[in-house]
Amino acid sequence: MSGWLKIVGLGPGSEAMITPEVTAALQDATDVVGYVPYVNRVAPRAGLIRHGSDNREEIRRAEHALQMALEGHRVVVVSSGDPGVFAMAAAVFEALEAGDAQWRSLDIQVLPGISAMLAASASVGAPLGHDFCCINLSDNLKPWALIEKRLRLAAEADFAMAFYNPRSKARPEGFARTLELLREACGPDRLIIFARAVSTPEESIRVTTLAEAEPEMADMRTLVIVGSQQTRLIERDGAPLVYTPRSAD
Question: Which element (helix H / strand E) includes 247?
Fold first, then answer.
């Protein structure tokens, strides 16, 4: 079988953060499949067909990619960041498990990328330097009650927390409720970082406290990090540094 499928991460935005492994896969591909803005990050060239689709068509997109690979195409499915973090790798495997039995014989690989979470952490220092958790605040695929439960338990365990998809235009109230819950569980002085469009020309980094945080500080291009009790801020000329020590009391 000559076709293959590679599920890759394009990193948070800058071309410099795309790994050489992913670059090589894109150069060898006959087809690129993904959400339109991510497909548009792949430069057109002779011999490459780009298949862009809507944001909420993940399973259909995965099925299309698997079928093209079965037919002999060299297919790359693109995600931003890392494909295994709230992205297309899980969607492809969901489609694989439920779909055509022939798809299971395909050569399928997941090629990691630099996640928005790690890029955002690096932009301010090392706030994820000790135990942390990562939560998707979108309630499109899970109920809000489950999100709230996980937030409370993460705060109780004193994890640093990284939040994806904090605040959409369709559901702005969710992040306001998140901030209220965190102020109650963590206290007003806990550090919070708003990292928007990291590694792009629109990058904006803001370090503040839960007491000063406002819902409008986040949108869907923002990665939010809330520190643990141990997380520290180092004041200096210019932007401060934030880190969480490697040990805990």
Answer: none
